[in-house]
Design brief:
The structure is a single chain. Strands 1-2 form a two-stranded antiparallel sheet. The protein has about 200 residues and is mainly α. It is built from 9 helices and 2 strands; from the N terminus they run ββααααααααα. The protein is about 65% helix and about 5% strand. Helix 1 crosses helix 2.
């Protein structure tokens, strides 16, 4: 049977962790998913929210209440879902390691809608792994925009200082940013690795 399906009362329903399921769980219990722990009722409620959210996203009719849902879950289905929560979700998401700060669904919702610009429906449909990719690329794009702003400001400063300099200035003569130093270090490392490879190939070729 598919890892993203669950059978209840002879009918197959989609079952996957989505951001919408986390929002539903928060509304139903007042808790975030990372607070479930070993509480079987909370875990059952989260599974219920996952199935209901997946059905909503896939436009599958789902008219079971929580108690009816809980009565219909096969033990093997529940154990499989529980294992996926312990080992890291079926969608490829992983649980936080020791010392890592957990982020609540409300903070993620604020980030998605307030910063990234996602609408609520798109956010709800995302799995944690999908949202993680969206966030990573948004962060890279945002960082690049900030870097561009600083580099443009430096270029203007260079133009203003040039008349007062006896030598031709380049923007990096004015200042060098941390991300530029990092790029230079990575470039040197890449060249060094290539030279080492050629040296070994020549020796053993």
């Amino acid at each position: 049977m598919s890892m993203n399906k669950v059978i209840l009362y002879g009918k197959e329903y989609p079952n996957r962790v989505t951001m919408g399921a986390m929002i539903d769980f928060k509304r139903e219990t007042g808790k975030d998913v990372n607070e479930i722990g070993a509480d079987m009722e909370l875990l059952t409620m989260f599974m219920f929210c996952c199935v209901r959210s997946a059905c909503r996203a896939d436009e599958v009719t789902f008219d079971l209440g929580f108690e009816r849902f809980a009565d219909g879950i096969d033990l093997s289905e529940f154990n499989r879902f529980q294992e996926s929560m312990v080992t890291g979700g079926e969608d490829g998401s992983k649980k936080k390691g020791a010392g890592e700060e957990a982020v609540g669904i409300e903070e993620l919702l604020g980030l998605a809608m307030g910063c990234i610009g996602m609408n609520l429906d798109d956010f709800r449909r995302c799995t944690p792994a999908e949202f993680s990719v969206i966030y990573r690329f948004w962060l890279q794009h945002d960082e690049r925009n900030v870097q561009n702003d600083w580099e443009q400001t430096r270029f203007l400063a260079c133009c203003m200082l040039q008349p007062y300099s006896k030598k031709k200035l380049s923007p990096m003569d004015v200042c060098r940013f941390s991300w530029e130093r990092k790029r230079e270090q990575e470039a040197k490392k890449e060249v060094s690795t290539k030279e080492r490879f050629e040296e070994i190939a020549k020796k053993w070729g």
